[in-house]
Amino acid sequence: MEAKLILQFKTSLVKNQIHYKNNYRRQRTMMHAPRTIAVMLEPVNNQDLSSSSSSSSSSKNVYNDNWFDRAAINYLSTSVQATTGFKSTSSGYDGLVEAARAAHRVFDPAEQQQIVLQALETAFPSFILGFIRAVLPKSSKFTREYFASFTTVFFAWLVGPCEVRESEFEGRREKNVVYIKKCRFLEESNCVGMCTNLCKGPSQVFVKKSFGMPFYMVPNFEDMSCEMIYGQEPPQPTDDPAFSQPCYKLCKESKRHHQKCAT
């Protein structure tokens, strides 16, 4: 009789221990199980997104300019400052952008383009331009591809990393396009008006005037990329979408100086 009672007691004790362990395991599993939290977000205004996405969509690039880059930047910056009469307090690329900002604030769009043209003519002596015109034929596949390759090698300090791409030109494939992944000048200025009036417009005129070659720049203000197309005539400013593009919502110039970035 006693043996039977002891056996029943042990059996009950084992069952209780098993039940306790199972409950303990379930509780630990519930405590440490991953939890999903639902968060409700306010809808984004599409207009605000489109007007500011380019200035805040990605982190700012960092450039480690070498001696050639610094020399070229300072040379062009000095030319712009001499043309505008503005003395920059910054050095390097910051000084170049500061001089460009000063021109953008003081002069109207037509005057801005003329100032940059004068600065480019000062930076590139006429005898060098004349030599290039004499050596290279005005309209040839070789010349267009040569200028595209030359741009990627010697002007990355100004526009940022770039590469040569193909396009169809008069029914055949040519490597006459320079693709800029993210324009350094547009990123630093963060202003559509400075891009069109201090870079795109005067550059198109300068290349055509200096080398007799049509040159069309197609900036993408959404991702700050740009295409430079050698051999293609640009449309008139009134028909060019870039010149009717509104400026960024977070444009530094319009916020600081309460001005309309006219293009």
From TrEMBL:
Keywords: Isomerase. GO terms for molecular function: cis-trans isomerase activity; iron ion binding. GO terms for biological process: strigolactone biosynthetic process. It holds the Pfam family D27-like_C. Residues 157-237 form the Beta-carotene isomerase D27-like C-terminal domain. InterPro entries: D27-like, D27-like_C. It comes from the Eukaryota. GO terms for cellular component: plastid. PANTHER family: BETA-CAROTENE ISOMERASE D27 (PTHR33591), BETA-CAROTENE ISOMERASE D27, CHLOROPLASTIC (PTHR33591:SF1). This is Isomerase. It comes from Lithospermum erythrorhizon (Purple gromwell).
